[in-house]
Amino acid sequence: MRSFLLDSCTLLWASYAPELLSPRAQGIVANTDNFFTVSHATIWELSIKVARGKLTLPKNFFNEIENAGYSLLPTALKHFDTLRKLPLLHRDPFDRLLIAQSIAEEIPLITCDPEITRYDVETVW
């Protein structure tokens, strides 16, 4: 059993369009022995996109995250300590927090974002 942190695209695609995931990510997501975590930062990012009209989600999407078997990862001081040490290679604050959480928690991040791979963080795609 292995744990993985999902970014926003991975969470959405795993939920609604798994064919958009890479073959490797599809295999990981389909493996019921794996454990998946969703950051509160991802929930925050998606909430902002919904509020701005840039994204439409099913009415109960946020309530269904835990029902789908995903664990939620709140932000912790150790995440911000890691975040402050990251170089400014990527300006997206949500992605930067996910990178910091992935590093601090030692959980690989499933993401298709090539900017994230510029950091010393374990990614999967």
Give a description of the structure.
- The protein has 125 residues and is of the alpha/beta class.
- The protein is built from 6 helices and 5 strands, in the order βααβααβααββ.
- The mean pLDDT is 96.
Number of domains: 1
Q: Mean pLDDT across all residues, rounded?
A: 96
CATH C-level class is: Alpha Beta
The strand order across the widest sheet is 3-2-1-4-5
Low-confidence stretches: none
Distance, first to last CA:
18 Å
The tally of beta strands, per DSSP, is 5
Give the quaternary arrangement of the chains. single chain
What is the CA-atom radius of gyration, in angstroms? Answer: 14 Å
**Architecture (CATH level 2) name:** 3-Layer(aba) Sandwich
Write down the secondary-structure element order: EHHEHHEHHEE
Q: How would you describe the shape?
A: globular
- Provide the β-strand percentage band: 5-15%
SS-based class: alpha/beta
- At the fold tier of CATH, the topology name is Rossmann fold
Summarize the main sheet. Answer: 5 strands, parallel
The CATH H-level superfamily is 5'-nuclease
As a percent range, the share of helical residues equals 40-55%
Number of helix segments?
Answer: 6
